[in-house]
Structure formats: C-alpha cells, structure tokens
C-alpha cells in the first residue's frame, strides 16, 4: 500500500518538473535548480505532515535557489520555531526566511 506521503512527494516532484524553466537568471531558476528546489520544498512539507507540532495545512513553503520561504499562520511560537527548525534540517537548504505569523484570537 502506497502511503499518503509517497503520493504527495511524487506529485510535488512531478508538478515542479513540468513548471520548471530552462535558463537561470536572478529571478528565474534553471531546470536543475527548479527540480532541486522542488525536492527541498517537498521534503519540508512531508516532514510537516509527519510532525505533530506543525500544521502542514497552515504553513506554506516555497524554495528559490536553496532559500526556503515560510509563510502562513501558527497557533503558537513553539509551532513557528519547530517549522523553522525542520526547514533548516533539510539537506540543500542554504537559508530560511520566516514569515509565519501567530493567529490572533479572532482568527482561531
């Protein structure tokens, strides 16, 4: 039986391959960089799915040239810290930009 995580990872890699460009510029990645970045993004999201402290549905992950950009909302500072820690642990990540915000009591 194929696990949800394997299906998710496969889908993300396939989708990013189709969306990748051919040449590298300051704003656009080469095909290889795009595939590498999509693998990083997929690995981070898969680790969020496995982790009980981070809501994979509420944290968005984008990667560009090894820099992971996190955004979205978290219930507490511990969740934010854990999300950053997980992203930094993935091989190929050069830096993490954290734009995750705490949910306000009205948004919860």
Brief summary of the model shown:
With 108 residues, this protein is α+β, with helices and mostly antiparallel strands.
Task: List descriptors.
108 residues; alpha+beta; 20% strand
What is the structural class? Answer: alpha+beta
Q: What's the helix-strand series?
A: HHEEHE
Number of strands: 3
Give the neighbour order of strands across the main sheet: 1-2-3
Total number of distinct structural domains: 1
What quaternary form is this? single chain
Percent of residues in beta strands? Answer: 15-25%
Provide the CATH top-level class: Mainly Alpha
Q: Radius of gyration, Cα only, in angstroms?
A: 14 Å
Gross morphology: globular
Unreliable spans are 20-24
- CATH architecture annotation: Orthogonal Bundle
